[in-house]
Amino acid sequence: MLPLALFVSLALAGDPTALRVEAEAVTLARTSEYAAGAASAEDVYRWSVRWLDAERRSPAALAAHLARMLALAELARTRVQTGVARAVEGHEAAWYVAEARIWTAG
């Protein structure tokens, strides 16, 4: 990831590539943290939406976000089934998938 000062200066300069790179890095980090029980599904979702927004919601970006939410839902299902996550996380992930499908279809 970029050093915070550099990221802020690039963001303030309106560099969309810097925003996308950072959103991607944080999304991947949050996904790993979620798998280890150190982050929430909501953390992964929020950063995935930021990544999507940084890509300007292009059709390819929408499809990629949907794929990330499907993977998150599968991870949530596994975590709920093994008892390391609360059942509500499965419902949250299902909502993220439904929303992503609506955005992709829209």
Structural class: mainly alpha
| Main beta sheet strand tally, sense and closure | none
Number-wise, the strands total 0
Order of helices and strands: HHHHH
Whole-angstrom Rg: 15 Å
- Point out poorly predicted stretches: none
Question: Whole-number average pLDDT?
Answer: 90
Count of DSSP-assigned helices = 5
Q: Distance N terminus to C terminus?
A: 33 Å
Shape from CA axes? flat
The overall number of domains is 1
**Percent of residues in β-strands:** under 5%
Helix content: over 70%
What do these coordinates show?
The chain has one domain. It contains five helices and no strands. It has helices at residues 4-12, 16-35, 41-54, 59-81, 87-105. The protein is flat, with a radius of gyration of 15 Å.
Summarize the structure.
By secondary structure, the protein is mainly α. The protein has helices at 4-12, 16-35, 41-54, 59-81, 87-105.
Salient structural properties:
106 residues, mainly alpha, 80% helix
